[in-house]
Amino acid sequence: MYDSFTTAINTQRATTHWMETLTDNMMNQYTPGFRESKVTFSTFLGGAITDNPVKNQGQGKSTPGTSNENVFFEGSGFFITRNSEGKTAYTRLGEFTFDSEGVYRTKKGDSVQGYILNDNGEIMAGTKSISADLYEETALKGGALSIPTTNIKMWIDPNNGKFMGKYDEYEIKEDGTIYGKADGGKRSVPLYKIATANFHNPNGLYEVREGVFVETEDSGKPVLGRGSIRSGLLEQANTDFKGNMTNYQQAKVQMELVNALIKSNKELLEEAMRLVSS
């Protein structure tokens, strides 16, 4: 049977974890792409324990990026990335740039995934094109995002300095389409569409490193992401600083009460030991 001292120790440990999580949230309020952690508690006979923190996958505000290569996803979902081992991951942080070989990559070096488009802006699956309506039906109504993605590559021809040998510049539109532009901007050709995905239970995703997630049985399979993509911006942390500060003050009060209970129990134990030994 648990006594008050054991209960207080367990609650103290849980409160410490809560305060550490709140502190981490507040310290990262200006970290682009940071996902706020939410702590929940379970109670049992021996006091309170904290459940595994849940990441808040809500929308963060936009902030200027470092270049037009950076992108901000306003909506529900994640950008799709792939590491050097071919493993897929998902992120909200669009701090992407083209490397020396023209591959669109994250800050950590993972390749950003997209779809190759034909001149009509239709997604190409092998040698067949997929209309926008069929894409919606295949990717969304069918449940899983089943259309294969590819690395986005805007290589520069060393002979003329143009993107893919024929485009003077590129532009990223709000639907995620990357256009190659030529003839002083008079000719605009769709090249890639940045791929996005969402999940029926995004809180079920597993965070493998800060802001990078992989799917799990709890998250379910990816479906089509919904929203717009804005070039030259990044997503700020979605931390509610005021809410975290309020919770931190509550945690401090809880910690003070628990510490007082522990102190009282220690004093009672010391008095009992003194009486026994006298």
Q: What is the H-and-E element order?
A: HEEEEEEEEEEEEEHEEEEEEEEEEH
How many discrete domains?
2
Separation, N- and C-terminal Cα atoms: 29 Å
* Helix count from the secondary structure assignment: 3
Radius of gyration: 26 Å
Overall pLDDT level: 86
Number of strands: 23
The 3D shape can be described as elongated
* Major beta-sheet overview: 11 strands, antiparallel
How would you explain this protein's 3D organization?
The protein is an alpha+beta fold. It folds into two domains: 4-55 and 251-277, no CATH class; 62-235, no CATH class. Helices cover 26% and strands 31% of the residues. It has helices spanning 4-27, 132-141, 241-277; strands spanning 37-38, 41-44, 47-50, 54-55, 62-64, 71-76, 78-82, 88-91, 97-98, 104-105, 111-116, 123-125, 128-130, 150-151, 169-172, 177-182, 187-194, 196-198, 206-209, 212-214, 223-224, 226-231, 233-235. Strands 7, 8, 11, 14, 15, 16, 17, 18, 19, 20 and 21 form an eleven-stranded antiparallel β-sheet that branches. Helix 1 (4-27) packs antiparallel against helix 3 (241-277).
